Amino acid sequence: MANSLLSPTIITREALRILHSKLNFIGNCDKQYDDKFANSGASPSGKIGPSLTIRMPNQYTIRNGPTLSTQDVVESSQVLTVSTQKGVDFVFASQDLTLTIDDFSERYLKPAISVLATNVEADALNMVKDVYNAVDDNAATFSYKDFANGRRLLNQYLAPDDDRVGIINSGHVVSYLDAIKGLFNPQESVARPYLNAKIGKVNGIDTFENTVLAPFQSGTSAAATGYTATLTGGSSTVVMAVGANTFNQGDIVTFSTVFAIDPETKLSRGYLQQFVVTAAYAGGAGNMTVSPTPITAGAAQNVTNVGAGLTVAKVGGGASALYSQSLVFQKEAFAFVTADLVDVSKFGAWGARQVMDGISMRIARQYNITNDTVPCRIDLLYGYKTLRPQLAARIIAQ
After folding, report:
1. Which one of 12, 172, 236, 387 is CB 3.0 to 4.6 Å from 142, fit for a cystine?
2. What is the pLDDT at residue 357?
3. Structural domain boundaries in the chain
C-alpha cells in the first residue's frame, strides 16, 4: 500500500492549532472584525482594503425632571489597519510528506510556529503601552491584592463581566503561587497552577501565564518629576514647564487636583486620573501628548477639572526604572485581525490557506530550480488596535 502524502491543508491546520495554543494574549483579544478582511482575490488586505473604521459606543447624559432636553450624539471612531506581514521559512524534502502529521509537526511545525507565535504576540503586546489605568505596587511583591485591585479598576470603568482575561508575567506567577501555596488541594480547581502552570479563573478572570510580556522601561523622570504643567479640556497636548527629565511612550502620569470620575454618575472617584504618555518626550519645556484626552463636561466627561500649574507625578517607580508588569482586561479593550493572503494553490502551487478562531494563515512551497531546493513559507498578515483602553489595567509590582 502506497504512503499517503500530507496535504498542505492538513499541515496548515496543524500549524494553526499550534499557533493558537501559544497566543494567550492575542487569543483573547476581540477578533469580531476579522471577517471584514476576508479576501475576495482583489486585494491582499481583504475586500475592504487595508483599513477598517470602527465605531465606538455612544455616550449620553441624564435629564433631571419632566422637561425634554435633547442632546447631540457625538459619534467617535477609530481606524484599524492591517499592514504587518510576518512569516517563517524553512526547507523540507518531499519524502517528509510521507510522515505522520504528528512526526511532521514535531520535526518542522512546532519549532517554526513557536518562534512565529512569540514574535507576533510580542508585537501585539505593544498595545499594553496604550493602557493608562494601573495598579501601582512597584515597591512590593506581586500579590493577590494587586490582582484584586486590577479587577476593581475594570469594574469602576464599566468593563463587562464576561470575557475578562488576566495575563501574568512569569515573575509575578512565582509570587502568586508562593502566596497561595497553603491552599494546595488535589482538586483540579485549586491544584491546577501547581500541576500545569495554568492559573485558571481568579476573581472571575480567566488568567494565564505569559512569558512574552516584557518589563517596561520608563523614562528618566522619578516619581516626583519636577514638572508642572497646563492641562486643557478637549486636548491631548500637555504644556510642560521647564524640566530636564524624559518620559517614554507608555509612562503613566498624574496631575495634581485632576481626579477620576465615575463614567455614569460623573462624581469624583477621590483618586487622581491616570494618563499614559503616547509619544516619547525628550524633556525640557514643551508639549507632551497623553491619553485619555481630558474632558470636563458632557457625556464624555472623564475628569473633574483641568488647569495650569499642576504638579506632574509619575506612576510606577523611579528614574529609568525597568519594572515588571502584568495585565487584566476585557476583550473589547483590544482588537486583533488577520487578512486572507492570496491562496497560491489556485495558481497550481503547493499551498493552502486556512482560518481558525479568527486567525488566517497561508502556507506555500515551490521548487527552486536555481538552488535545487524546495523552500516552504508560512505567512500571517495582521493588524491590531487598542480600542477601549479604559477596559484594561496594568499591574506594576516586583
Report:
1. 172
2. 84
3. 8-59+76-126+333-384, 132-214+323-332+392-397, 217-320
